[in-house]
Automatic annotation (TrEMBL):
InterPro entries: LigD_pol_dom, MtLigD_Pol-like, NHEJ_LigD. Pfam families: LigD_Prim-Pol. GO terms for molecular function: DNA ligase (ATP) activity. This is Non-homologous end-joining DNA ligase. Keywords: Ligase. CDD domains: MtLigD_Pol_like. It comes from the Bacteria. Residues 28-280 form the DNA ligase D polymerase domain. Its EC number is 6.5.1.1.
Amino acid sequence: MTPITEVEGRRLSLSNLEKVLYPATGTTKGEVLHYYALTAEPLLAQLRDRPLSFLRYPDGPDGQLFFTKNPPPGTPAWVQVSEVPRSSRETGEQVVVQDLPSLMWAANLVVEFHTPQWRVDEPAIADRMVFDLDPGTPATVVECCEVALWLRERLAADGLEAYAKTSGSKGLHLLVPLEPRPSPEVSAYAKGLAVEAEAELGGLVVHRMARALRPGKVFVDHSQNAAAKTTATPYTLRARTEPTVSAPVTWEEVTGCDSPAALDFRYDDIAGRLDRHGDLLAPLLDPAHAGSLP
């Protein structure tokens, strides 16, 4: 029998709670849902008003993975669905998770949460900028941290404040709160900084996506600033071998990163980190921290 639970007045069917989703750690679906309930406050703050894309992995990271922007079949009527542009010529509907019942409904589908850099009320007007620092083997997150520190200083020279989180995989994400600007303008600025990083950091950085260029270097991916692109939402679990999280980190942790394991956080690390640090990405939501592109 599928358990029925009530969350803030909404009835939810939570299925297969004993199912092991991460065999490497024995982590069950019930534990995944418990994680999302514990981190709901900061996660909902990052999801609010942003159209969601889902990477679904209902049988765990070793099973079938599929990416969707469309509302899943059976989406409850009380879950917000908004019409958003998909291209210059077409629109489509996407889920917007605004409350705890909607979050737990989505988590029950077993998903990674991915969001764009803009909100549903201002499509393609970015209120944040992102750099995805992706290491090419044998480079690791250690090299990503070196690049992140350079980018932080360079952004500060333009009056912009950067915040860091792990990707939940091998790399690092930098997020910059902005006064709203059209996505193409943000993309152009981000690309310019990626090109500058490649010039300044010698053989450490590549700004182009071609995989042949990337071994031993950090790819500074600026492309996720395009209006059609998305980035793993802070606090989302990832469909990896172990239940890793895209976790906010302090700049002290970035500076002190001396091994790949130094910034490797799993779902059961996050509650303690929130107790110690609070939501390190809360400034992204505060207009007082938004910078203006030069």
